[in-house]
Design a protein that fits this description.
heterotrimer; A mainly alpha (344); B mainly alpha (334); C alpha/beta (357); C: 2 domains; 4-stranded parallel sheet; 39% helix
Chain lengths: 344, 334, 357
C-alpha cells in the first residue's frame, strides 16, 4: 500500500527502469501466453476456430474495444480514469449515423473526422473539469457518463438509424479490406502503434508516465501537467468518438443506447492488459492485448459451447487474477530495488 | 463575533447543507406545483424507489469516507437475488433463506475485503472485477429463469404500508438502519477513525487505528447490506432474477458523491448523503409525473454530480481571492 | 492472514448456525399459498354502453427506442385519435421490469383510464398492475403478457401454436428439407420466444421434420451486437448449419447482416420474425428468402380499442364477449382473456415493397 508513495519509481534511462520494463514485458508475455493457450485449446476442440473467417471476426470485434482501450490506457497511466467513453461512443455513433443517413454522398473520411471531433470535444470538457475545476476524474467522468448519454437520448428520442438508411460505402467500410486486412482492424492497428510509440519513445509519453507516478513531483519537475492532462482526455474522447464511427459502420443499426456499459469492458481490458489503476505503469499495446483476450474469451466460450452465462464470471475472475499478478510484479520490483539499495 | 459569522457562513455554504436545503426546496416546490406529487400513495412509491439506493448508500458512505470504493454492490444484490430464487426452488423455507441471503452478501464482502486489505489491491480494480464476477455467478446460478412464486405474506409486506395507512413498512427499516449507521459514523470512536483513515491512512495506522481490519469489516457490512437489499428487491418485484439491480452501483456512488462525500476520503456526512438520495428520487418522481422523459434526468443527475464538487471548489477559490484582496486593501490603507 | 482466516471461519459458522436454526419449520415453496392480488370486482358487461370519449390511454412498451415497439404504439396512437381519447407514451430506456414498475406507479398517480403494457417480466409488474386495477384503471397487455391474474385482457399477435408451426415450416423450407438448424432467440427468459420455441420443438419431433436437427438455441438478448456475435458463434460451432431461425426482430436483422457480409452468404439461410423495413436490404440481396410477422401497428390499434371498450363498460374481459375495433372489425375475447389478432403475414422479395413498417 505504501509502494505508490515511496520513491521507487526510477528516473528515466536508469538501468533499474530498464529492469522494471523487462519485468513488465513479462507481464504482457503472460497475456500472450494465456491467449495462445486459449486459442490452442479451442482450436483443438473445433479447428474452425482458426479459419480465416473466424480470425477475421475476432479481430473485427476486438478493433472497436482496442481503439477505446488505447485512449483509456493513456488516461489511466496519468492516474486518472475516463468512465464516459461508452456514452461518448454512443453520442458519436448516433451523430455520425444521422449525418450519413441525411447526406448519402459524404465520403467516409468526413464521417471519421466528425466522430473524432465530437469525441475530442467531449474529452476536452472532461479534461477542463478535471484540471481547472479540480474535480476528481472519477466524479467528472461518472457525471459526464450520465450527461452525454442523456444528451444522446434527448436528441434521438425513440428513433433509430437502420442499416438501410445508411449509405452503401459507409456500411461496406466495416467489411472492406486492403491487402486482406479489414479497414477496421487496420485503423485499430494504426491507433495502437501510434499510441505505443508516443508513450514509449516521445518526451510527452514519458511525461505522462511521470505524472502518473507522482503528480506533485511531475509538476515540480516543470512538466506541463495541464497541457498533458487535457491532451490525454481529449485523446481518450477522440478515440471513443472514432470507435463510435466504427461501431456505426460495423453494426449498421444505431440507437441512443449504443455502447451502454462499454466503459466497464474498456476499463477491464486496460486492467487485464497490465495498466496499473494508480497510474505510472503499463503499456498501450498491453491494453490492446487485454482487449483481444477479452474478445477471444467471449467467442471461444460460444465455440466451446460452454454455457454463455459463465462468460461474465470468467472475465471477472480474470480481472482479479490480473491485478494480483500486477501486485506480484510490483512486489518483486520493490524487492529487487531494495536489494540494489542494500548493495550501494 | 466576526469569527462566528465566518463559521456560520462556511457552514451554510458547505455542500452538505446546500444539498439538504436543495432537497427540502425540491420537495416543497414539487408538492405545490406537481399534480399528485404530495399524495400518500406517491409517498409510498417514492420510498420504495429510494429503498435500494438509500440502504446501500449507508455502508458505501463509510467506505468512501475511508478513501476506498465498492462497485460490486449491485452485482452482490443480483447474486443474492439469484440465490434466493434457487434456494426457494430447493424447498428451503423463506425464513431461513432470508438470513442465509444476507450471509451470502456478507461472504461477497469478505472476498472483496480480503483482496483489498489482505492482498493490498486497489479497491477500484478489485470491485470492478467482482462486479463482473458476482453478476456472472448470478447468471450461472439462475441462468435464464426467473423465480416468482414467493409467498404473498412477504412480498406484500415490502410493498405494503403500516396498517394500510400512509407509512410504508420498509420506511421503518430505512429509518432504523439510517439511525444505526448515523450514530456509528458520527458519534463513536469507530466512526471518527473512518475519517482519520480517509484523511491519511498512514497517520491513522501510526496512531493505533487498525486500518486494514476496519476496512475489511466495512466491506463485509457493505456486502451484507447489499444482500439484504437483494432480498427486499426480490420480494418487492416478486421476481428473483440474475439481472436484478444491474447498474445500480453507479446510481449509489453518484448519490453518495452528490451528498458531499469526497471521493478521496476523509470528508462527508450521512445527512448529506441521505438528502442526496432523496433529492435524486424526488426529482425523478416529479419529472416523471410531469411527463419529462427519464432521459432528461440523466443530464440532471450528471450535472448535479459534477456541480457537487465543482461548486465548493469554485466558492473556495472565489473566497480565497476575496480574502486576499481584502488583506491587500488592508495593507494598502495601513 | 491468520486473523482473516479466523474471520472467514466465524462468518462460515454464523452461516451454518443461521440455516440450522431456521431450517425447522417456516414457509417453503410447497407450503406457500399464493393468494395475493387479483381481487377484482366482477362487473357485468353492457355491450350497448356508450363508448366514452376523452379516455386517457397510456402505452408502456418494453422499452423506448425499439423500432418494433415504435410501430406498435404508432398503431395505438392512431386508434386513440379515432376514439377521441388522450394518448400517452412512456417507457424505460432499458428493457427491465423494475423500471417499468416505476412508470406504472406514475401512471396510477396520473389517474389514467387505460394502461396498455408489454410486460418485461410476467410477475414483477404484477403487484403494481393490481394496484392500478384497484384504482379502477383497465390493464391491457400486448406483445408480452403478464400473469393472467393481474391484467384484464391480452392482445395476442397470433396464437403461440400458429407462430411455432410457421417457424418450423419456414425452417424446413429454407434448410431445403434436411440438415442442421439453430435458433437465435431474444433474452433467455423472454416469455414469447420461449413458448414459440417450445411449440417449434414439438413440431420438429413430428415425422415430416425428421431430417431437420435443431442443434442449438442461442440468445442474443435482443441486443444488436450480442445477436451479431452469437450468429458468428453458431456458424463456427456448427459448420454444417443450413438455417438460422430467429424469432425476434433484433436477432433476425443481426443474423442477416452478419451472413450477408460473410462467406456464408448463400450457404446458410436466415428466417424467422422480422420487420420489413429492417429486412428489405437482406431480402433484396438474397440473404433472406422468406420471413414472417403480423402487422405490429394492428396490435397497438387493437389494444387501444379493447381498452376503450373495457373502460366504457362494453366488455369486462370474460370469454365470449365481442367488441368492435375500428377498421379491423369485430373481435371476440377468447379463453383466459386473450384476444388473437390473426395469422402472421409472410414476406418475400415479391411482396416486401408493399409494406412500410
Amino acid at each position: 500500500m505504501t509502494i505508490t508513495s515511496t520513491p521507487t519509481k526510477a528516473p528515466l534511462g536508469n538501468p533499474v527502469a530498464q529492469k522494471a520494463s523487462g519485468l513488465f514485458k513479462q507481464r504482457e508475455l503472460g497475456i500472450v501466453l494465456a491467449l495462445a493457450l486459449l486459442v490452442a485449446y479451442t482450436a483443438i476442440d473445433n479447428p474452425r476456430f482458426l479459419s480465416g473467417q473466424s480470425i477475421r471476426d475476432n479481430l473485427l470485434n476486438t478493433a472497436i474495444l482496442a481503439v477505446m482501450a488505447t485512449g483509456q490506457a493513456i488516461v489511466v497511466i496519468t492516474r486518472n480514469i475516463d468512465l464516459s467513453v461508452g456514452s461518448v461512443l454512443g453520442i458519436s455513433a448516433f451523430a455520425v449515423a444521422t449525418l450519413m443517413s441525411k447526406n448519402q454522398d459524404l465520403p467516409m473520411i468526413v464521417a471519421l473526422l466528425v466522430g473524432l471531433g465530437v469525441g475530442a470535444v467531449a474529452g476536452l470538457v472532461n479534461g477542463v473539469l478535471v484540471r481547472y475545476g479540480k474535480v476528481p476524474a472519477l466524479v467528472v467522468t461518472l457525471g459526464t457518463l450520465y450527461i452525454y448519454r442523456g444528451i444522446t437520448y434527448s436528441w434521438a428520442g425513440g428513433s433509430q438509424v437502420n442499416a438501410d438508411e445508411l449509405p452503401r460505402h459507409f456500411l461496406t467500410f466495416a467489411n472492406d479490406s486492403i491487402l486482406g486486412i479489414p479497414w477496421l482492424v487496420l485503423i485499430a492497428l494504426v491507433v495502437i502503434a501510434a499510441g505505443s510509440i508516443m508513450m514509449r519513445n516521445y518526451r510527452v509519453g514519458r511525461e505522462l508516465y511521470a505524472m502518473g507516478s507522482s503528480p506533485a513531483a511531475a509538476e515540480l519537475a516543470g512538466i506541463k501537467v495541464a497541457r498533458n492532462l487535457l491532451g490525454a482526455f481529449v485523446l481518450s474522447g477522440a478515440l471513443a468518438g472514432l470507435a463510435g464511427v466504427l461501431y456505426a459502420a460495423r453494426f449498421g443499426t444505431v440507437d441512443a443506447a449504443a455502447g451502454t456499459g462499454y466503459e466497464l469492458n474498456v476499463v477491464a481490458a486496460v486492467v487485464v492488459g497490465g495498466v496499473a489503476v494508480f497510474g505510472g505503469s503499463g503499456t498501450v499495446w498491453g491494453a490492446a492485448l487485454g482487449a483481444l483476450l477479452l474478445t477471444v474469451i467471449g467467442s471461444a466460450l460460444a465455440v466451446l459451447d460452454i454455457n454463455q452465462f459463465w462468460q461474465q464470471a470468467i472475465v471477472g475472475a480474470l480481472i482479479i487474477l490480473a491485478i494480483c499478478a500486477d501486485r506480484l510484479v510490483a512486489f518483486r520490483i520493490a524487492r529487487s530495488l531494495r536489494k540494489r539499495d542494500a548493495h550501494v | 463575533m466576526s469569527d462566528r459569522v465566518a463559521t456560520l457562513r462556511s457552514r451554510l455554504t458547505s455542500w452538505d447543507s446546500i444539498i439538504v436545503v436543495l432537497t427540502v426546496l425540491v420537495l416543497v416546490v414539487a408538492s405545490f406545483s406537481v399534480d399528485n406529487f404530495g399524495t400518500s400513495r406517491n409517498f409510498t412509491f417514492m420510498v420504495l424507489d429510494l429503498l435500494p439506493i438509500i440502504l446501500i448508500a449507508l455502508p458505501m458512505t463509510m467506505i468512501i469516507v475511508t478513501g476506498e470504493i465498492d462497485l460490486s454492490v449491485a452485482s452482490t444484490l443480483g447474486l443474492t437475488s439469484s440465490m434466493m430464487g434457487w434456494l426457494w426452488n430447493q424447498g428451503l423455507s423463506i425464513e431461513s433463506i432470508i438470513p442465509l441471503c444476507i450471509v451470502i452478501g456478507a461472504v461477497c464482502g469478505v472476498v472483496n475485503g480480503f483482496l483489498i486489505t489482505g492482498l493490498g489491491l486497489p479497491s477500484l480494480a478489485v470491485t470492478i472485477g467482482t462486479l463482473a464476477l458476482y453478476r456472472g455467478l448470478a447468471f450461472v446460478v439462475l441462468g435464464d429463469g426467473a423465480v416468482a412464486d414467493f409467498p404473498f405474506d412477504y412480498t406484500g409486506w415490502v410493498t405494503g404500508t403500516i396498517g394500510g395507512g400512509a407509512v410504508p413498512n420498509v420506511l421503518i427499516l430505512i429509518v432504523a438502519l439510517a439511525l444505526i449507521f448515523g450514530i456509528v459514523q458520527h458519534a463513536t470512536p469507530f466512526g471518527r477513525s473512518l475519517y482519520a483513515i480517509g484523511a491519511n491512512a498512514q497517520a491513522a495506522h501510526f496512531s493505533g487505528i487498525r486500518v486494514a481490519r476496519t476496512k475489511f469489516w466495512l466491506y463485509v457490512v457493505s456486502g451484507a447490506v447489499a444482500g439484504l437489499v437483494g432480498v427486499l428487491w426480490t420480494l418487492r418485484y416478486a421476481s428473483a432474477r440474475a439481472d436484478n439491480g444491474a447498474g445500480l452501483e453507479l446510481a449509489v456512488v453518484a448519490a453518495v458523491l452528490l451528498g458531499g462525500v469526497s471521493i478521496f476520503g476523509g470528508k462527508g456526512s450521512l445527512p448529506g448523503v441521505l438528502a442526496g438520495v432523496v433529492l435524486l428520487t424526488a426529482l425523478q418522481n416529479a419529472l416523471r409525473l410531469e411527463d419529462v422523459s427519464g432521459q432528461a434526468l440523466n443530464i440532471v443527475t450528471g450535472t448535479l454530480l459534477v456541480l457537487s464538487v465543482l461548486l465548493p471548489n469554485v466558492t473556495t477559490a472565489v473566497r480565497g481571492n476575496w480574502q486576499r484582496r481584502k488583506l491587500r486593501q488592508a495593507a494598502a490603507t495601513r | 492472514m491468520l486473523r482473516s482466516s479466523r474471520t472467514l471461519l466465524s462468518v462460515g459458522t454464523a452461516a451454518l448456525l443461521v440455516t440450522g436454526l431456521s431450517a425447522c419449520g417456516g414457509t417453503t415453496k410447497d407450503s406457500a399459498s399464493n393468494s395475493g392480488g387479483g381481487a377484482q370486482v366482477a362487473a357485468s358487461a353492457d355491450p350497448n354502453a356508450q363508448a366514452k370519449e376523452g379516455l386517457k390511454i397510456a402505452f408502456l412498451p418494453k422499452q423506448l427506442n425499439n423500432p418494433y415497439s415504435d410501430v406498435e404504439v404508432g398503431g395505438g396512437k392512431v386508434a386513440v385519435g379515432e376514439l377521441k381519447g388522450e394518448y400517452k407514451l412512456v417507457g424505460p430506456n432499458d428493457a427491465s421490469a423494475s423500471s417499468q414498475v416505476s412508470y406504472i406507479n406514475t401512471l396510477i398517480q396520473q389517474q389514467q383510464d387505460v394502461i396498455v403494457v408489454a410486460a418485461n417480466d410476467p410477475n414483477a409488474v404484477c403487484p403494481s398492475l393490481n394496484q392500478a386495477r384497484a384504482a379502477k384503471i383497465k390493464v391491457i397487455t400486448f406483445d408480452s403478457d403478464a400473469s393472467k391474474d393481474c391484467r384484464d385482457a391480452f392482445i395476442n399477435q397470433a396464437t403461440t401454436q400458429g407462430i411455432g408451426e410457421s417457424l418450423a415450416k419456414m425452417a424446413l423450407e429454407q434448410a431445403g428439407g434436411a440438415g442442421e438448424i439453430a435458433v437465435l432467440s431474444a433474452t433467455p427468459n423472454a416469455t414469447n420466444q420461449n413458448s414459440w420455441i417450445d411449440v417449434m420443438k414439438k413440431e420438429l419431433a413430428k415425422p415430416e421434420y425428421s431430417k431437420l436437427k435443431l442443434v442449438k438455441v442461442a440468445y442474443g438478448n435482443d441486443d444488436d451486437q450480442k445477436s451479431f456475435q452469437e450468429a458468428q458463434g453458431l456458424l463456427q460451432s456448427y459448420p454444417n448449419l443450413k438455417a438460422i431461425v430467429a424469432p425476434t426482430t433484433v436477432g433476425i436483422a443481426a443474423a442477416a447482416r452478419y451472413i450477408s457480409s460473410s462467406s456464408y452468404k448463400g450457404k446458410v439461410a436466415v428466417t424467422g420474425l422480422g420487420l420489413p423495413n429492417q429486412m428489405r436490404e437482406y431480402v433484396k440481396d438474397d440473404t433472406v428468402k422468406k420471413f414472417a410477422l403480423w402487422n405490429p401497428a394492428d396490435i397497438g390499434y387493437l389494444a387501444a380499442y379493447a381498452g376503450a371498450a373495457m373502460a366504457s363498460g362494453q366488455i369486462t374481459g370474460a370469454e365470449g364477449e365481442k367488441f368492435k375495433a375500428g377498421k379491423l372489425g369485430e373481435y371476440t375475447i377468447g379463453a383466459g382473456g386473450e384476444i388473437v389478432l390473426g395469422p402472421p403475414t409472410e414476406f418475400t422479395k415479391a411482396n416486401i415493397d408493399e409494406f412500410n413498417f
